[in-house]
Amino acid sequence: MNLPVSLDRRGPVGLITIDNPPVNALSHAVRLGICETLEAAARDDKIHAIVLICEGRTFIAGADIREFGKPLQDPWLPEVLAQLEAMDKPTVAAMHGTVLGGGLETAMCCHYRLAVPTTKLGLPEVNLGLLPGAGGTQRLPRLVGARHALDIMTSGKPIDAASACEWGLIDLVVEGDLPDAAVDYAGQLIENGAGVRRTGDRTVEPVADDFFESYRARIARRARGYQSPWRIIQCVEAAVSQPLAEGLSLERELFLQCRDSNQSAAMRHLFFAERAVARIPDVPKDTPARDIGQVAIIGAGTMGSGIALACLDAGLDVLLLDLDRKTLDKGCEGIRQGLAASVAKGRLDQASMDKSLKRLVPVDEYEALSGADLVIEAVFESMSVKEDVFTRLDSVCRPGAILATNTSTLDVDKIAAATSRPEDVIGLHFFSPANIMKLLEIVRGRETSIDVIASSTQFAKRLRKIGVLVGNCFGFVGNRMLYGYGRENQLLLLEGAAPEYIDQTLFDWGMAMGPNAVGDLAGLDVGYKIRRERTDLPDDPRFYRVADVLAGLGRFGQKTGRGMYLYKDGSRIPIPDPEVSELIRKEAESLAIGQRDIGEQEIIERCIYALVVEGAKILDGGIALRASDIDVVWANGYGFPRFRGGPMFYADTIGLKTVYDTVCRFRDSFGEQYWTPPPLLERLAKEGGTFAAMDED
Ligand code: 3HC
Ligand code: NAI
After folding, report:
1. Is 22 in the pocket of ligand 1 (CB under 6 A)?
2. The dihedral of CA 554, 559, 564, 569: what is its sign?
3. Cα(642)–Cα(66) distance, rounded to whole angstroms?
4. How far, in whole angstroms, is CA 201 from its chain's centroid?
5. What is the secondary structure of 181-233 as a DSSP string?
6. Which is the most buried residue in 134, 309, 387, 541, by most CB within 10 A?
7. Catalytic sites, residue numbers
8. Strand locations in 358-401, DSSP E?
9. Is the confidence at residue 30, as pLDDT, over 70?
10. For residue 462, which of 605, 343, 289 has the smallest C-alpha distance?
């Protein structure tokens, strides 16, 4: 077998090199290769110290995630690393790139560690529903203390080389050529007779009696619903109080529980799904993209200023246009405050903020946009206003400029038809707050050209967002599905479930917020206006009835201090309002809807299966390229719990036959209008198929 690990000798130093592109993951072959080369280096009398180093863009970035769903082949990583740590000759990890997960665990089993200044080091297993399973939970606290170790492992965020050095995770930051520096360093160890230095022989600094209890309280909010952060804490408790062998045995037991859980399967699914979005069958990776240096944004309201901030953060030049001078000033001030907040949080330095502000140019006439490479329209959600804007853009923008709309629901083809160049028009649907939310729906119009799509996916990457290509229809993927979810919420209200009960149930299930709290945050007037413009709504007096009545009363939500809930003195804390309960009761009465006790399971099934039903139609209609794209949209744009993998993956874990049977039961109870099972769901349920398997075909 040709192993991706080799051993060379440079004088008295053995150089073990891993070469397993793209990220040197610890596949079975790499694990075998490490064992073999360690044995060879141990046998070779001319070798007195060993350097472990990687080819390519990074040191080992972790275990091979693709192997987790399959039976693991021997040797397992913990055994390989035990062999590494037990070496009698000093070993040195020479690191660059992203040293993650099993990669950092490997480095911690070397006796010495050095890294180039740009190296990032972390244990991100928590993002995959896992805990470090090759000694990381035991060795990291031994090197950096329990507090830093817990921060690193429960956040999953990597640290830079300078902090790693300061905290004792690495010994040295080296400049210049890494192999040379590492071999020199190993040579000095030999000369000085430094010998081996095993992390496992160290003990963890003691912690205060209430340390773990208060740490649990500290992460309670952020770790809600997730299993692995709590297990990580359990392992670190063992590291503090027990010998290495016992800590490692607990870690192994808990790691296997995590690895075999639905949570980890869901999060691993999202890991690959978020990378799969870049694969677009008719837009090959080498499709030439247009250069984007200057972006013009039309509309300085909520979305326009957020998009401007996102573009400035990415180093782009921004023209911000609004016809209303006051809004323009307010938008620019909001952007300044947004940048200042980043400085206050230490995410940005003052000089970068000043540079960003210089790259922002407010304008109040369309002629100023003639040099823009990309224009993003974020004006009112009205077709006639948007058509007017695009007609103007067509007359002032240079040939080859990309003309994008941030519409959340409207027909991109109709907007494109207002120009003489529909091939240059695309939807770039951001989510609020646009500088924070990771999702960007890229809406392909009928005539959008391939290179405009390629440019848009690159633009998403530049903004560090996940760009998902979707088709053009009302609401695209995310908002179209949201309609079904919101519809069920609204019907449940009429049928007797209180807003706070529905919200709590879905929050406890894992959603970031309940639908009624979200409605109040976004503004009940927004959906109300959109529904008034639509001509294709169901002929059903119950449809969004409560929301429409509240909006009609001027109860728009947080911005007016009352909506589905009350908000006292400008606070964002929702307070259940007896007036709303009464209003809902009366509406139900006028529609002859009997109110009843509704269980949590019904709330979850009706709201979540409504997403699955619409998702199946979207998939069948080619609006999404893959089921996993739908999951990416919901996990990154709508607060769907990552530990459930997205609505389509969740349906797979429940079993499509069970979902289908429940949908049929709903059809029989609530009527065909909303609950006719889509043909795709019916077919997969009958064949025993899954949405995930469709993606593989
Ligand atoms: N296993 C298998 N494949 C991996 C991988 C891994 N650990 N890490 C990355 N890849 C693959 C990606 O799927 C992608 O494949 P594709 O090109 O076919 O889509 C390719 O490598 C490149 O990855 P990215 O597109 O993400 O490249 P970036 O340069 O943007 O990022 C990275 C590189 C920072 C290494 C990022 O890929 C990453 O964060 N990887 C995951 C790291 C991780 O979670 N490690 C822990 C694994 S669990 C573990 O180690 C358990 C242990 O404790 C026992
Ligand atoms: P907003 O009302 O806050 O801002 C719209 C801005 O457009 C106003 O400042 C207005 O002065 C300006 N404007 C109107 N007509 C103009 C014209 N002809 N030329 C230049 N400027 C003009 O609205 P918001 O919320 O920012 O929404 C904008 C767009 O983004 C809408 O299409 C909306 O559907 C979409 N969107 C909104 C989201 C949200 O959460 N608010 C999320 C995603 C998309």
Report:
1. yes
2. negative
3. 18
4. 38
5. HHHHHHHHHHHHT-----GGGS-PPP--TTHHHHHHHHHTTTTTT-SHHHHHH
6. 134
7. 105, 125
8. 360-363, 374-377
9. yes
10. 289
Give the H/E segment covering residue 576. strand 575-576
Q: Does ligand 2 come within 6 angstroms of the Cβ of 106?
A: no
Mean pLDDT of 374-403: 97
- Ligand 2 atom nearest to 392, measured from its CA: 18
Task: Give CA–CA dist 473/61, Å, rounded.
Answer: 40
Phi, psi of 624 (to 5 degrees): -115, 145
Cα distance between residue 351 and residue 364, in whole Å: 27
What is the predicted pLDDT for the residue at 1?
A: 63
Confidence of residue 389 (pLDDT cuts 50, 70, 90): very high
Q: Is the pLDDT of residue 582 over 80?
A: yes
CA diameter of the chain: 92
- Measured between alpha carbons, how far is 150 from 232 in angstroms, rounded to an integer? 8
Q: Per-residue pLDDT averaged across 576-599, rounded?
A: 97
Looking from the CA of 250 toward its CB, the CA atoms found within 13 Å total: 18
pLDDT of residue 534: 84
Q: What is the pLDDT of residue 511?
A: 98
Candidates 326, 497, 343, 473; CA nearest to 413 is 473
pLDDT digits (tens, 9 = 90+) for 186-217: 999 999 999 999 999 999 999 999 999 999 99
Is residue 614 within 8 A of residue 653, CB to CB? The reply is no
- Atom 38 (ligand 1) nearest CA: 61
Ligand 2: distance of its center to the CA of 300 in Å? Answer: 7
As a whole number, mean pLDDT of residues 457-480 equals: 97
Q: Strand, helix or coil at 57?
A: coil
Strands 439-444 and 425-430: antiparallel
**Does the Cβ of 80 fall within 6 Å of ligand 1?**
no
Q: pLDDT digit string (tens) for 312-359?
A: 999 999 999 999 999 999 999 999 999 999 999 998 999 999 999 999
- What is the secondary structure of 269-294 as a DSSP string? HHHHHHHHTT-BTTB-TTPPPPP--E
- For residue 3, the model assigns a pLDDT of 81
Q: CB-side exposure of 265: number of CA atoms within 13 Å?
A: 11
Which residue's alpha carbon is nearest to atom 20 within ligand 1?
22
Compute, in angstroms, the gap from residue 513 CA to the centroid of ligand 1.
30
